[in-house]
């Protein structure tokens, strides 16, 4: 399960997050629900410090994808569509 891999690589992921000004990393979706399979991607909800750009988000995403060898989707709270907002926020768990 991808969740187990995340726990093993948690410190590395948080170090990468820190490099790009990410203060909070949460998992949501199938991995957070422990329902992921071999074709699952990783959904991350993050919070950036002020002054960071889209490039920081893209670089973070790429580094985590390279580390885990899995597709990663990264969103911020403000970018979540209103129709999914409650489900994402209520289902997110801290990395």
Q: Give the CATH level 1 class.
A: Alpha Beta
User: Any idea what the CATH superfamily is called?
Assistant: Beta Polymerase, domain 2
**Which architecture does the CATH hierarchy give at level 2?**
2-Layer Sandwich
Oligomer: single chain
Give the tally of structural domains: 1
Number of helix segments?
4
Query: From N to C, what is the helix and strand string?
Result: HHEEHEHE
C-alpha end-to-end distance:
15 Å
Assign the structural class, choosing from mainly alpha, mainly beta, alpha/beta, alpha+beta, or little secondary structure. Answer: alpha+beta
CATH topology: Beta Polymerase, domain 2
Please describe the topology of this protein:
Layout (H helix, E strand, L loop, with lengths): L1 H7 L1 H10 L2 E7 L13 E7 L5 H15 L3 E5 L5 H10 L1 E2 L1
Parallel strand pairs: 2-3
Antiparallel strand pairs: 1-2, 1-4
Helix pairs in contact: 2-3
Task: Tell me what you see in this structure.
The chain is α+β, with helices and mostly antiparallel strands. The protein has one domain: Beta Polymerase, domain 2. Helix content is 44%, strand content 22%. It has 4 helices and 4 strands, in the order ααββαβαβ. It has helices at 2-8, 10-19, 54-68, 82-91; strands at 22-28, 42-48, 72-76, 93-94. It has a 4-stranded mixed β-sheet, with helices on both faces. Strand 2, helix 3 (54-68) and strand 3 form a beta-alpha-beta unit. Helix 2 (10-19) runs antiparallel to helix 3 (54-68). The longest helix is centred in the middle third of the chain and has 15 residues, at 54-68. It is globular and about 35 Å long.
